[in-house]
Design a protein that fits this description.
Length: 528
């Protein structure tokens, strides 16, 4: 049993048709019938022909989504449809791919579905599963955190049971004091380990903003605690150990961190992290910075499928066709990279020898370290389509592709786009409804002369302007003033937080204030 998300358009434009007709709709206007197209390469050819102005990475991304829609989604699988109402519908796939030639363009690629429930409140779904649903892709699988079983439970009207691997103990650490007490209670050879996500939740924080990082660092310093590796490194689901780094040395003259460096009592993930850290840095070097590293990408921490040195080229080709891969890493028995086999390298090897071996088709692969700055590798990924990721032992631990970057940066850009449209609509309404002298009245006197339009106002100034009863009446809006101002203030706080760098993505739940306010402004001021 598998679970998928199939969106109904970027703004839910196909939502009504999907629910009323009992279908999943893939969109992709202008693309013809895919019924008789069996392979990923053939779908890629069709996509490239339908969209000749698109680059190879966009074509590849769209090909992957359409291949899932046509071939990978199976009858009996669960499917989730996020709705504009901030609810979700859940159904069970009831048929194979169909092409409706007589339907309107954009409504032709369909899969039959039996909708089991259409009004699940997103707030009833735990944040990790909500975050998994937050991809910008139209068609994607929910494969993490026991998603399929949890979707099945929701479809039966049961509450979200949560992650099967959820750390119930971590959830009990509801405040910093409890964390300190737990670290102090534990024996030195049984350190507290938990995910960065659960660690941040102790402070009621979801993302690593600079101010939040500074607050947590100061709290840890005051109590003599340290995280290994630093909680600012890695993805939000990476594991860390919390140690009494400031405790005095034991009888042998060693610190808790030094004693634990080579221990086998920790989880493999934390053992690896501690080995990379080596030992507790001195006090002057403990400034923890938030950097956007390769390890911040989820795919950099997920072991890619591979072949071993000595496998046959047929094995590599079979895996690549079955999984739709463009390349495959070749590893030695220790898990270290010995090269990459790609369709291009296979073609070149076969030109020289029709019976070429895997070794003959293996070429040098691009390899980044988990701790590298991600920005340094964007050009390589753009040019080559991928980069493999290695850990501190130089063993392959992940693979970053152009599609991963597209999704990651698309997710990061979306909040800025929402806030920008909100500000543009506010500016237009204010310039249209208020004279310049009234606009200038809401800014400090020293700056008033530099205000030439609403474009010179800060986000907070709109709240000051519209809080005045006469100004609000001038808008002529038939909505509640207090609720609007509250939504505006919530969005202002969201915007201010957004302006501070964090390596963690904004979740769908955190986007709610901005998206709700934008939908309201679009209704009040429907001009494009």
């Amino acid at each position: 049993m598998r679970a998928w998300v199939v969106r109904a358009g970027e703004n839910g434009e196909r939502e009504h048709a999907a629910l009323e007709e009992g279908v999943l709709l893939a969109g992709w206007q202008g693309l013809g019938d895919l019924t008789d197209i069996a392979t990923r390469e053939d779908i890629k050819t069709a996509v490239a022909a339908a969209y000749p102005d698109e680059g190879p990475y966009t074509v590849g991304n769209w090909t992957g989504q359409l291949y899932r829609f046509v071939h990978e989604i199976q009858p009996g699988d669960f499917v989730v449809l996020p709705l504009k109402s901030w609810r979700v519908a859940i159904g069970r796939v009831a048929g194979g791919y169909e092409y409706r030639a007589d339907a309107a363009d954009g409504l032709r690629h369909v899969r039959r579905v039996e909708w089991l429930v259409k009004d699940i409140d997103r707030q009833s779904i735990q944040s990790d599963l909500q975050n998994s649903m937050g991809s910008l892709l139209t068609v994607f699988e929910l494969s993490r955190f026991g998603a399929a079983e949890r979707i099945a439970a929701l479809a039966e009207g049961e509450p979200d049971p949560g992650r099967p691997d959820a750390d119930e103990f971590a959830a009990s650490l509801t405040e910093p004091t409890k964390l300190y007490e737990e670290v102090r209670r534990r024996a030195s050879d049984e350190p507290l380990t938990l995910s960065i996500r659960d660690f941040l939740a102790i402070w009621g924080i979801q993302r690593r903003y600079p101010a939040a990082v500074e607050q947590i660092k100061n709290d840890l310093d005051e109590r003599g605690l340290v995280t290994v590796p630093p909680f600012t490194d890695g993805s939000i689901d990476s594991k860390i150990a919390v140690l009494a780094g400031g405790a005095e040395p034991d009888e042998a003259g060693t610190s808790a961190v030094t004693r634990l460096t080579g221990t086998t009592s920790l989880t493999p993930a934390v053992q690896s992290a501690m080995h990379a850290a080596g030992h507790l840095p001195d006090e002057e070097s403990q400034v923890q910075t938030v950097a956007y590293r390769v390890s911040n990408l989820e795919s950099a921490n997920r072991m890619p499928e591979s072949v071993k040195v000595g496998d046959s080229l047929k094995t590599a080709m079979t895996i690549m066709v079955l999984r739709g891969y463009s390349q495959l890493p070749v590893l030695d028995t220790d898990g270290r990279l010995r090269g990459v086999v790609s369709w291009e390298s296979i073609g070149r090897a076969h030109m020289a020898d029709p019976h070429a071996s895997l070794e003959a088709a293996t070429v040098r692969g691009q390899e980044a370290d988990r701790s590298d700055d991600l920005l340094d590798w964007i050009g390589t990924v753009h040019q080559s389509g991928y980069v493999l990721v290695r850990d501190h032992d130089h063993k392959v631990c992940g693979l970053v592709t152009a599609s991963d970057l597209t999704v990651q940066f698309g997710t990061r850009v979306r909040p800025f786009v929402l806030v920008e449209e909100i500000e543009q609509r506010l500016r237009r309404v204010v310039d249209r409804c208020f004279p310049l002298d009234l606009i200038r009245a809401v800014v400090p006197r020293g700056r008033a002369s530099r205000v030439n339009s609403a474009a010179n106002l800060t986000f907070g100034a709109y709240g000051h302007l519209l809080r005045v009863r006469e100004n609000w009446a001038a808008l002529g809006w038939a909505i509640d003033q207090q609720h609007f101002l509250a939504a505006l203030e919530e969005c202002r706080q969201f915007r201010n937080g957004l302006m501070h760098f964090s390596p963690d993505p904004v979740t769908a739940d955190q986007l709610l204030p901005a998206q709700g306010l934008l939908e309201l402004l679009r209704s009040l001021d429907p001009q494009n």
